[in-house]
Recover the amino acids of this structure.
């Protein structure tokens, strides 16, 4: 293969990748999620479309709703939405932490059905045992 | 320890190690082709100039003539 | 007797190696776990942010050398070579930023990847500079290649501040930077902070060593071309094919 043809292929792949990333940036990344109160305010327009919803997991709300389903409430801006998640949430999931769930409202209700939970955490890291020199593995 | 964390460290060390080794080996083979052990790159322009000047000195061609001849 | 410059590069290389080994040892075995991060899940903190930082430094250096190349009074092919060398090392570190981020995201966030603004603009950064490296290989007159590469490096650099500030400009899954350069705040303390700092310094030294070696390789390639040219002149002269 000649150098110019190889470069043309590389150029095409790179331009295609750039186009794809700009498209993703303009569609998914700019509005990465809706907060709980925003989603309830836009409830009618949202219908049963799939979107990402953010809120803080309410303490004491997490319980198992089925063999492969976990139910919990999330809160943000004074609004609460109950979420049914298919599958187990990630290891870091715990009440009090903000999460982003991917899914849709069920029928015409304010219940949310999700199949993915993403756990947000802050940029702050606090040593669990500041006085211990060596951490156990 | 989480295997994801161990994998993260392994990927970083392996990638940087391979890249560093490739830089070193490419430099070695470049020097071998040049036939000079440690001729500093800074000496390059002077060296070329000398060769071109030598050529001009005994009535040999400059760079423009080379293109016509090659 | 090696030149002072090559001895300095060797010294930087050894310091980088020792620093990286120390970072790995402190990061994996000595520093404490963090609250809310079981299984040592906090420990990529000493590796992942330095990867992103080095990528920024590398692209900053490519930006600066490209600017110096384009500036009429400093137009010199050495700046072009430095820009190319730095950007190549930057691409290696951007790739590592994406891979370590993905490996960290899976157990902490719960996903390998998501189209969050920070992740999307970082992927864009990776592809932009891959494009820059590809552009450098498009054949042509060396001055013309250097000129268009320098302009491309200036354009691609626009994405660097976008990546850094994406977390504050848009909603994202990724947390704000732990090392806040604008607010001058470090969101980590004690041995964790020192280990993180050591990671930043060590990987930056590794970047310096790699860029110096990559630059030298580019200089050797130019030298080789010139010798080939000189050799060709001598050959033609010997053959008597070039007539004056």
């Amino acid at each position: 293969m000649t150098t110019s043809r190889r470069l043309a292929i590389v150029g095409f792949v790179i331009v295609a990748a750039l186009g794809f990333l700009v498209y993703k940036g303009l569609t998914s990344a700019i509005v990465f999620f809706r907060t709980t109160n925003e989603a309830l305010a836009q409830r009618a327009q949202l219908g049963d479309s799939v979107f990402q919803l953010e809120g803080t997991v309410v303490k004491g709300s997490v319980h198992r709703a089925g063999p492969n389903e976990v139910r919990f409430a999330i809160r943000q801006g004074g609004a609460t939405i109950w979420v049914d998640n298919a599958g187990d949430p990630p290891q870091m999931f715990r009440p009090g932490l903000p999460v982003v769930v991917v899914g849709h409202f069920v029928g015409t209700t304010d219940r949310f059905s999700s199949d993915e939970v993403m756990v947000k955490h802050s940029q702050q890291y606090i040593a669990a045992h500041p006085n211990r020199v060596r951490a156990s593995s | 320890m989480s295997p994801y964390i161990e994998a993260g460290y392994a990927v970083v060390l392996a990638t940087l190690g391979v890249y560093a080794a490739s830089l070193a080996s490419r430099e070695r083979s470049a020097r071998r082709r040049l036939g000079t052990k440690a001729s500093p790159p800074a000496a390059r322009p002077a060296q070329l100039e000398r060769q071109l000047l030598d050529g001009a000195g005994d009535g040999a061609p400059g760079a423009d003539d080379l293109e016509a001849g090659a | 007797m090696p030149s002072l410059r090559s001895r300095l590069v060797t010294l930087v290389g050894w310091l980088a190696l020792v620093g990286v080994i120390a970072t790995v040892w402190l990061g994996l075995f000595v520093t404490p776990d963090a609250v809310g991060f079981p299984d040592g899940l906090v420990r990529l903190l000493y590796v992942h942010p330095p990867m992103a930082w080095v990528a920024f430094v590398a692209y900053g250096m490519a930006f600066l050398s490209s600017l110096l190349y384009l500036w009429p009074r400093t137009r010199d092919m050495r700046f072009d070579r430095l820009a190319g060398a730095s950007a190549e090392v930057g691409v290696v570190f951007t790739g590592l930023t994406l891979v370590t981020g993905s490996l960290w995201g899976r157990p902490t966030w719960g996903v390998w990847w998501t189209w969050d603004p920070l992740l999307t603009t970082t992927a864009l950064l990776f592809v932009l500079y891959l494009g820059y490296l590809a552009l450098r290989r498009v054949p042509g007159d060396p001055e013309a290649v250097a000129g268009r590469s320098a302009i491309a490096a200036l354009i691609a650099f626009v994405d660097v501040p976008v990546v850094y500030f994406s977390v504050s400009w848009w909603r994202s899954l990724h947390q704000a930077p732990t090392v806040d350069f604008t607010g001058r705040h470090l969101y980590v303390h004690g041995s964790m902070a020192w280990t993180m700092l050591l990671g930043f310094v060590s990987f930056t030294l590794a970047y310096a060593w790699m860029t110096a070696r990559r630059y030298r390789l580019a200089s050797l390639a130019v030298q080789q071309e010139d010798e080939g040219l000189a050799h060709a002149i001598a050959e033609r002269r010997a053959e008597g094919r070039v007539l004056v």
User: Anything to note?
Assistant: Confidence is low (pLDDT under 50) at residues 52-70 of chain B. Chain B has three helices and no strands.
